[in-house]
Specification:
Order of helices and strands: HHHHH
Helix content: 55-70%
Number of strands: 0
Structural class: mainly alpha
């Protein structure tokens, strides 16, 4: 997690909008893998609110996010609208 946070600090979205989103995605993946569901979902919510290569469909299909399935907030994010 420390290295993920460091990556976000080195390349924040505010400084580099396109590449910075990838560091946020990486950090969200780290949090999902280690069981910090709420932190991962906080980051995903932020990413879905800005231009990024991430969508609810992608979150539904990518097995990386499987640890978050069943979480009410995550299920709400990936729900078809």
């Amino acid at each position: 997690m420390r290295e993920g946070e460091k990556g976000v600090a080195m390349l924040p979205v505010e400084k580099e909008a396109w590449r910075g989103t990838y560091r946020l995605i990486d950090l969200a993946k780290i949090h999902a893998m280690v069981g910090n569901q709420e932190k991962a979902i906080d980051l995903l919510e932020r990413l879905l609110s800005i231009p990024a290569e991430l969508s609810p469909v992608y979150l539904r299909l990518d097995p990386t996010w499987k640890p978050l399935r069943g979480n009410k907030r995550f299920d709400e994010l990936i729900k078809e609208k």
